[in-house]
Amino acid sequence: MYDVKLSYAQLKDYVSLLAKLKLLEMVPRGNLIICKTTAKGIDFVKRYAELQELFSK
């Protein structure tokens, strides 16, 4: 969170949005909640990378 210069509140908002969009899922593991990228999230990242490549030419 510090490396990307986000406050805790901003991070919570982004994670909530990504979960709502089904790009992340929250997986309880003991006392922790792990954020896991969904198949839809992985597909989004791949397509985004393709678009970046297209527009950088």
Structural descriptors:
alpha+beta; 53% helix; two-stranded antiparallel ribbon; 57 residues
Describe this structure in words.
This protein has 57 residues and is α+β, with helices and mostly antiparallel strands. It has one domain. Helices cover 53% and strands 21% of the residues. The protein is built from two helices and two strands. A two-stranded antiparallel ribbon has the order 1-2. β1 and β2 (32-37) form a beta hairpin. The longest helix is centred in the C-terminal third of the chain and has 17 residues, at 39-55. It is extended.
Rg (CA only): 14 Å
Percent helix among the residues? 40-55%
Order of helices and strands: HEEH
Whole-Å distance between the termini?
Answer: 31 Å
Number of helices: 2
Task: Describe the structure concisely for a colleague.
The protein is an alpha+beta fold and 57 residues long. It contains two helices and two strands. It has one domain.
Give the topology, please.
Layout: H1 8-20, E1 24-29, E2 32-37, H2 39-55
Antiparallel strand pairs: 1-2
